[in-house]
Amino acid sequence: MSLLLRKGSWSAEEDMLLKNFIQKHGEGKWHLIPLKAGLNRCRKSCRLRWTNYLSPKVKRGDFAEDEVDLIHKLHKLLGNRWSLIAGRIPGRTANDVKNYWNTRVRPRPKPQKQELKNVKPSQHPTVSIIRPIPRTISKTLNLYPHIKPHDTGNLRTSSNDGFRDPFYISQGLVPSPTLSDNMIKEYLEKEGLDDVGQEDNENSLFNLTLDDGMWDLLHSEHIGELNITD
DNA sequence: AAGTTCCTCAACCGCAGCTGG
DNA sequence: TCCAGCTGCGGTTGAGGAACT
């Protein structure tokens, strides 16, 4: 007899089963949930339900003004990298941010039926999709073995020399460039930004997750040459 | 009051990256 | 090196409630 997995909205009972399982076993064991929690749901559905709705970390309600501001700034830098953006906004999930952006910021007006009729096939607009250039980094490459891998990739202020600590992208195996305050200031001015991300409680200007797209952006036309220090 | 359209957001789908055998 | 399984991500859909006619 084949076991059909349930789809659609979650019941209160299912929520309770999922909560109980995660309280007992912790997050991350998604493959065990359908088996051990007594839930007739696929593991993807369970993970999504927890991360987007049931987790105590999830903040409900409307976005505050500063959250909206941050979303706009980060989207300008990162594009549709919803999980990265959400990672900078405590309590908000990638789904929240994505939904917010698609419904409030980028509402697509539905074309009227008459308008559709009037558009000939040859007049359909062409849309170019620009994606970040994929960059493969060897996991065994470590140019600076004396520096321990850093797993956050956050940009932080260094001591008093005007330069920021080296940081590491991805798995933290490749050293990043070091950016001077002037370089960052120049970048923010060019982009019309006053600040990005969250204030560090020390003396940093900002604390920004630098992913591949941002790396390429900084590395190419916006900042110019970057220093690499050891 | 009833029918229709619009809007929101939870949930699904397909794909890519990672990991371990 | 290949492959299968797992996880996480972004794009999209659709149910259901609100607003409008």
From TrEMBL:
This is R2R3-MYB transcriptional factor. PANTHER family: TRANSCRIPTION FACTOR MYB8-RELATED-RELATED, TRANSCRIPTION FACTOR MYB90. Keywords: Activator, DNA-binding, Nucleus, Repeat, Transcription, Transcription regulation. PROSITE patterns: HTH_MYB, MYB_LIKE. The keyword Acyltransferase does not apply. Pfam families: Myb_DNA-binding. The keyword NADP does not apply. One of its GO terms (cellular component) is nucleus. It comes from Dahlia pinnata. Its main location: nucleus. It comes from the Eukaryota. Residues 105-125 are annotated as: Disordered. InterPro entries: Homeodomain-like_sf, Myb_dom, Myb_TF_plants, SANT/Myb. Residues 1-58, 59-109 form the HTH myb-type domain. One of its GO terms (molecular function) is DNA binding. It is found in: Nucleus. Residues 5-54, 55-105 form the Myb-like domain. One of its GO terms (biological process) is regulation of primary metabolic process.
